[in-house]
Amino acid sequence: MRQSETEAVVLRWFEALGSGDVDGAMACLDDDIHWVNSPGADGAKHGVPSLSAIVPWFGDFRGKDEVTATFGPYGAAQETLHYERLNLMVREDEAMALVRETARIRATGEVYDIEFVQRYKVVGGRIVLLRAYLDTSRMVAAFRGDMGARLLAAARAGDAEATAGLLPYGADPNALDPGAGESALVAAAAGGHAPLVQMLLDHGAVPDLVDRSGQAALHAAAGAGAAEAIAVLLAAGARPDLQRPTDGRTALHAALDAAADGCAALLLDAGARADLVDHAGKLPRDLAPPSTDADLRARLG
Prior knowledge:
The chain is of the alpha+beta class. The chain has 14 helices and six strands. The protein has a six-stranded mixed sheet. Strand 5 (111-123) and strand 6 (126-133) form a beta hairpin.
């Protein structure tokens, strides 16, 4: 009797999923369902943080509320093209199903086609445990098609958590935005996000990489008055006298033009030259506003 009940519940689950009946599928789950798509250390909630940051429904969840919350990201992130139960083995209160899933990731257009095993435990006519055993590499590869765009968005927003979830999985910190031509390092520096600038540098961002607008991260940080970001970049070896190929300006020009006295002083302390002219023939001091600190103005010559 127990075995036939287990089979009936699992078949009802697959029938509901196949017809798009989310409510019917959820009715098959116990209120305290334990749903494991990607277990973390000691069953840590949400699985491996970096992996769950790429595939948002990977994790270790308990209760219908947590499980239901994974359905939203699942439907928003991908279009399921095919979902099929290939085989089902039942013994007493447990079942093992071989499943095939084909889906298109909406953001990237990439399609993955995988087979995986799900384990079920049924008690009192409800599924109390659902655990998936799968090779995540194809799914991650499909999601990674837009990693460059997501890294740039995270850098612009100063989202260190999202950035930390992308860099270990191959996001290129030196890739340029196909549209704006901006790098993640320039975006983070322009926003004054010093910890994020450090994170990008630690993962291979080139300090003096010039984007398509002609500026490097040091120019962006100086123009934004972001002293902490400047300090991080200088410590990583950014050249204080790098001139933008578009206008010949250095970071010192940018800092003075932005009335960022503290940034200008920091650059001078790092050895920035005050005698370099831009393409218009202007020295950094020519851009200094009347409000510039007298001691700083004296250092500019």
